[in-house]
Task: structure prediction
Amino acid sequence: MTSNEAPRVPLPVSIAPRPSPVPRPPVRHGSVYRGLPLIVRLVIWGSFAIAVGIVFGTTAPTALRRVGAVAALQPGMLAWYAVRAFGFLAYIVLAASVLYGLLLSTKILDAIAHRPVSFALHKDLSIVGLILASLHAVILIADQSFDFSPRAILVPFASPYAPFSVGFGQIAFYASAVILVSFYVRRHIGQRAWRMLHYITFLSFAGASYHGIASGSDASSPWAFWIYVTPVTAIIFLMTYRVVVGASNRGHRTAPTEVPPLPVRLAPVGADPGADRRGPLDRPATGGFLRRG
Result:
């Protein structure tokens, strides 16, 4: 290279930008809605209709005859029968609402039903249970067995009959009303507060169970025994399942993950160990960048 020639300037090296990573779809934990086949749904609803028909066909004639006999001989006893009937219906619907809520929280229903539909059904069960419990309490005024006043019905532990166990039933009723109201103020109180408030449901169910067993006149009957034992056993099982699964999930999230060691690349003998860490401007000029004298 002569003195009249301009020095050679290295051209800048263009580095192509790295492509942006493709966003991954969010990972959904738990069951995913798949639905039931049509034939399975037809079999389930058909079996349910047959079971309901058998129950009504075998019990309705006897029940109607007894109601007619009571209405003819002792009309005042009709209110007592109605109180018992609405009490059992309210307890069954309350138990179904609690069981449905546990099935929702454990995500067992997500594989066969949409979560918004299940949530709406859970709320509807709470409404029906509260209505039946209200009828169970209001009809007590017409019952001639005991002198129930509006104060005795509304104020806990003021009942003329079994005040302690009836008071637990009254507290369970008010707790169920609070839970029902929480469905409509969920956006205002927040999801966390709503979940914490929802734990009162278990106390309400426990109070209703004690109220029915301790103060119910049919608690010693075999059929009443199974009405109480079946939902209590199912709820205890689902609560245990929920606690075990929740503890297992928390353990997986908090477990430390091992980072694999980086591969070690050995440099050949005689090579510069700092060559890989230098940038393009730190490397010595070679070839055409050396000025010849």
